[in-house]
Amino acid sequence: MHFSAAQDLTTRALQQVGRVIQPQNTMAVLAGIQLQAENGRLLLSATDLSSHIAAEIPCDVQEPGSVVLPGSTLTELIQRLPTATFDLTSDPNTGRSTIRYGRNKAIINGYGQELLPTFPMLEDTQARLELPTGTLGTLSRQLLFAVSREDSRPILKGVYVKLGTGRLVFVSTDGTRLSHSWLPIPDYRGPQKEVVLPHKFFSEGARLNQNNPVTLTLGTGLVELTAPGTTFTTRLLEGQFPDYDRVIPQEFIAECRVSIADLRGSLERVNLLAAKDHSTPVAVHLEDGTIDLSTQTADIGQAQETVEAQTHGQALDILFNPTYILDALKALEGDEALLQFSGIQSPAKIMDAEGAQYFHVLLPLRQMI
């Protein structure tokens, strides 16, 4: 194999595909990035066996071929080249590759004739739709903090997606909190689908979707995300996602409308004490025109703050994990939040006061009554 390519384009492509490589791999070749040069293009790809990412850039191909080179070494070398272009020649038998730049050269030992394991491609298309620029970044901020980190229920480590006529619904939960968001898709006429996407689909997709619209394609067992020059494919999670509708409260005994900045500031200061001990709750007292927040720990001390708010309904005292409330507030986009309470032992609902397409449901901490 022999080709010449631009240093800046290759660096960006290497950084894109290298994100799928895991720090530890069961197969040595999975730490590599595959380069395939043919027909005036260079295709770069990497996989961790559950996901696959490929990026394509133009190049000058003198001799077509493929090679797998150590991903981190190759990326760091190309990134540091002082020239605008470089020339790469690879021995097809040993994988040993020579990179020439100006009067200089570097030699990287590849994986011989071994290529990356074949990743299944999307052969059938069950649903396809376009997502505007920035959509997956917003969804990542709204959903990923509520995804479970525990291995005991693997299905909760993903995001449930329901695709139907006119609406695309997303739900994440770890069993104690739940995030729900939806997008209007008025032009979609395809089949209804229910799938669970791995959380890395959103984190990787947010990067691809940051400056460009993307195409989302669902198939059997796979989901594909396509941006200009890049394709990300990952396996869907298998299993039954819990019936989340039953935990979303529909009736409320109290609610308040409050400045997000004011409430966040107070919670962050109160949380300075509570955060030292993850079992320390924040006590929320709601009454006419105010929200009182307080916490105390035996070793550190106590904090108490009052935030002005528009309140309706019953006065109540309720305990929450302060970090969980802060996570929910950070996902909101407006200036004011609407907090709705269904009882001191029942879920609360947090959303933008202007009724956006996102809300968060949070269980209070158990308390003696």
UniProtKB/TrEMBL annotation:
Q: Which residues form the DNA polymerase III beta sliding clamp N-terminal domain?
A: 1-92
Q: Which domain of life is it from?
A: Bacteria
Subcellular locations according to the entry: Cytoplasm
Which InterPro entries does this chain map to? DNA_clamp_sf (IPR046938), DNA_polIII_beta (IPR001001), DNA_polIII_beta_C (IPR022635), DNA_polIII_beta_cen (IPR022637), DNA_polIII_beta_N (IPR022634)
Identify the residues that the record assigns to the DNA polymerase III beta sliding clamp C-terminal domain, covering every copy. Answer: 246-366
SUPFAM superfamilies recorded for this chain?
DNA clamp (SSF55979)
Family annotation (Pfam families): DNA_pol3_beta, DNA_pol3_beta_2, DNA_pol3_beta_3
Identify the stretch annotated as signal peptide in this record: none
Q: How does it assemble?
A: Forms a ring-shaped head-to-tail homodimer around DNA.
The entry assigns this protein to a family as follows:
Belongs to the beta sliding clamp family.
- Name of this chain's protein: Beta sliding clamp
